[in-house]
Amino acid sequence: MSTQQLLGERFSQLHRQDGLLIMPNPWDAGSAKMLAGLGFQALATTSAGLAFSLGRRDAEGAVSRDEALANAHDIVAATALPVSADLENGYGDGPEDCAHTLRLAAAAGLVGGSIEDATGRDDAPIYAFELAVERIRASAAAVRSLDFPFTLTARAENYLHGCADLDDTIRRLVAYAEAGADVLYAPGLTQRDEIVAVVQAVAPHPVNVLVGSPSLRLSLDELAELGVKRVSLGSNLARVAYGAFLQAATSLAGSGDLRGAHEALPFDRINDLFRG
What we know:
Blueprint: H1 3-14, E1 21-23, H2 29-37, E2 43-44, H3 47-53, H4 65-78, E3 83-86, H5 95-107, E4 112-116, H6 129-144, E5 151-155, H7 166-178, E6 183-185, H8 192-202, E7 207-210, H9 220-225, E8 230-232, H10 236-255, H11 259-262, H12 267-273
Helix pairs in contact: 2-4, 5-6, 7-8
Keywords: Lyase, Metal-binding
GO molecular function, one term: lyase activity
Protein name: Isocitrate lyase/phosphoenolpyruvate mutase family protein
């Protein structure tokens, strides 16, 4: 059995085991190694974290597919953990665009990936229902043709685009599950009743919840009690890192205050994290 087959089996199994899978999001090989050293069992890329590291705003199309997959390949190579990728909207509107992107993701060493139903257009931010379902159906067919398990996550993006429509979100997630998605995900859900409704609607499929936002007042233990199987953090950890950097640099630029710089991780400690 190949390494990718083993990782694919492992990633799939993590969604079926008891307890909550906590899947943090590195933005480069170094952050991936640090997270692996802390004992996390799987990782996921972050399109926003990558965009920030390239000095770009996060927006649909801000990072090309080639750039995203090259970054994902670096993260895959940095650790022995299964890695899932944020593949945005599949880098194209058509179902075949999504399928092609997933085949390229598999070739990059990934064992999971998410496809969202956001268009990237202000005038029509969410794909029409029928097209959105066809995109997931084509994505599922593509990953089922691989010679290893690839966990497909389907994302319903209503809540990130000013449309807090729980009924439509659930309708979409149920349809995506029926179209072949393995994991369902509606980023932006923060209320207990909304999360419970999604979990119950798509059961027994696992549900991912985005954590790290102050507006989500539920603990990880509480989310697990609600039936959530997986959580991810999106760009949160990247923003934590950039926030500490900016705070220290702002103090230095404004008043010559070195206290922020003195809080840096000791050189030998960070150097040892990247040993081997």
